[in-house]
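As agreed, record copied across for absentees:
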Amino acid sequence: MTIVPTTKISYAKATAVFEAAAADGLDCRCVDEPEADIAAGVRQWSSRYAVVGVHPFVGAIYEAMPRGGVLARFGVGYDNIDLDKATAAGIIVTNTPGVLSHAVAEFTIYLLLSIANGEIFHGSSGQSFEWQPVLRPAELRGKTLVVAGCGAIGNRVARTAALGLRMNVVGVEVCDFDEEAFKTQYGYSRIVREFDEVADAADYVTLHVPSLPATRHFIDASRLQAMKPGAWLINTARGPVVDEVALYDALAARTIGGAAVDVYAAEPYVPAADGKDLRTLPNIIMTPHVGSATPETCVAMAQRALQNVKLAMAESYGQMDIVNPAVLEEIGQG
């Protein structure tokens, strides 16, 4: 039986899948989230594989895991992994692309509808049996939604907003794309390469860009200032793409109308600066990184993560969802 240390949060989201892995010879054992605990588990059980979540991995795991080992991300992306250190240590990093696109897009639309229906302002009146009917803030039909990042999630959001809610959807994408095909398939009215071209036209901005050095603080003070006063920002991408101090200042000063945020620079959320606690503001919706946390998606992510482990055991590297392919040369498998 191969022991696979698995973070508790990941295990809890798809327990049945991790338990069933025993039939394939994988003994998935819960460990706490901090890197030191996962590294300790790897050493204690002489493990070559581990299933990990979104907590940062900065050093200990790369010293604990043997060359040719696998850090199997339970989720998409790898911004919490130091790919240079992993590659240098001969450790393969995998993730689970594609399986969470629908869930995150659906959650983004939920946040958009919550904003438009005034949930933040009168969501509790029915629960307290108070009859206080007020005007809903807006209809979405005809409003402009700017989708920053026209990948799998952004395009799903665009199609739902354009074809289902009859919004004017404008895309922002720096990678090469077929603009006419995107317009036809996803309902964009146009697609630009620079956010600043359309910032002042947006009633709502939704972020779907990856967390990379180039996208750190993609939304900063200047871009918040460029948005119209009543506009809302939605972030279901990654926390670091927004400057949270600048966001606090913009919300407090009503430079923008509000924000709906599911991801944060530090998780669990910690204010980015003293006196800048987003939780104290009345014009923000905050959720605890649950955009992809549906039963269906969690099962799919667990299955994909364990499949990557099994493929590594069989040395079927070409079928794995590897995010640092250079590691194969480092361990002599290139």
Remarks:
- The CA atoms of residues 19 and 193 lie 46 Å apart.
- Residues 122-126 have pLDDT under 50 and may be disordered.
- The chain has two domains: 2-99+295-330, 101-286.
- The domain at 2-99+295-330 is CATH 3.40.50.720 (Rossmann fold).
